[in-house]
Structures are given as structure tokens and as C-alpha cells.
Specification:
It is a single chain. The protein is an alpha+beta fold. It is 42% helix and 15% strand. It has 2 domains: 1-101, Arc Repressor Mutant, subunit A, CATH 1.10.10.10; 106-156, 2-Layer Sandwich (Dna Ligase, domain 1). The chain contains 5 helices and 6 strands; from the N terminus they run ααβααββββαβ. The strands form 2 sheets. It has a 3-stranded antiparallel sheet. α3 packs across α4. The longest helix is centred in the first third of the chain and has 28 residues, at 2-29. The N and C termini lie far apart (37 Å). The model has no long low-confidence stretch (mean pLDDT 87). Bound molecules: zinc ion (2 copies).
Length: 156
């Protein structure tokens, strides 16, 4: 039993190291210094399945000894460098998600649970619409956030 859990622990450790290496490379390619806190922030946000708020990221990295201000500063640095995207899903909380290598500038749609507020990414979703009179220019330029609301699998 202990052998099994040891095996799992080392697999997880190896994956975390891979994620940190990838984060370090992307930070350097973006022209920033790959400080330990910055690498930890990018690796964590990249491994999250859904956009995470500053509070969530700070809680998860608290064990590393970084304070919330450092985490926040690095989230903003990574956003400005084009490695993270910051979005507000309508509750006035900024959430951060990694922009994948080769992903376009356009934001993908998100699903937001109307009961519990959980957020899911819909990276493959595509919406098409016909331009009609009165369609705002931002829509034509795709300079908009697309959000679907409903109940998540847990709240259904
Ligand atoms: Zn829900
Ligand atoms: Zn997303």
C-alpha cells in the first residue's frame, strides 16, 4: 500500500517539476525574469482547470511562504506579459487563466453556474452570428466576453 502511494507521489512530483520548467521557459521567452514566485504562480494557474481568483491562487501558494501582495504583483506582471488573461465573469472578481502557447488573442467562452458561481472554460466552443443593424462594433471585432449561464453538474 505504501509502495503504491510512494509511486504516485513521485509521479506527481515529476509532473510538478515539468510544469515549473515549462513556466520558467515561457516567462523567459516573454522577456521577464523567472523569479521563484513568478514561476510558481504561472505553473499553478496553468495547472488549474478553470480561471482562479487572486485569493484562490494565494491560498494554494501560501505553503510556499509567498504573501498575497507578491502573488498579486506577479499575476499582474504575467497578465501584462501576455501569459495570463484576466477576466471578470460578472461578479466583479478578477480571475486569471493561462493563455496557452499558440492560442489566439480572443478569449474563449465560459460557463458560469447560476447557483454556486463555479466557472468552466469552453475552449472549443464556437458561436456564429449574423451581423444585423444595431450590432455593436465590439461584437463584430469579437472584442467581447461570451458567457453561458446555467447549472453546473453538481447543482443540477
Ligand atoms: Zn454549481
Ligand atoms: Zn477559460
Amino acid at each position: 500500500m505504501s509502495a503504491v502511494s510512494l509511486g504516485w507521489a513521485s509521479v506527481t512530483r515529476a509532473r510538478r517539476q515539468d510544469q515549473r520548467d515549462a513556466a520558467q521557459r515561457r516567462i523567459r521567452e516573454a522577456g521577464l525574469r523567472a523569479t521563484p514566485a513568478r514561476v510558481a504562480v504561472l505553473a499553478l494557474v496553468t495547472s488549474e482547470p478553470a480561471p482562479a481568483s487572486h485569493g484562490e491562487v494565494a491560498d494554494k501558494l501560501a505553503r510556499g511562504g509567498w504573501d498575497r501582495t507578491t502573488i498579486y504583483r506577479n499575476l499582474m506582471d504575467l497578465t501584462r506579459a501576455g501569459l495570463l488573461r484576466r477576466s471578470d465573469i460578472g461578479d466583479h472578481v478578477w480571475r486569471f487563466e493561462a493563455i496557452a502557447d499558440g492560442e489566439g488573442e480572443h478569449e474563449h467562452p465560459h460557463f458560469v453556474c447560476s447557483e454556486c458561481g463555479s466557472v468552466a472554460c469552453l475552449p472549443k466552443a464556437e458561436l456564429s452570428f449574423r451581423r444585423t443593424r444595431g450590432t455593436p462594433r465590439a461584437v463584430r471585432r469579437r472584442d467581447v466576453a461570451i458567457q453561458l449561464r446555467g447549472r453546473c453538474d453538481v447543482c443540477l
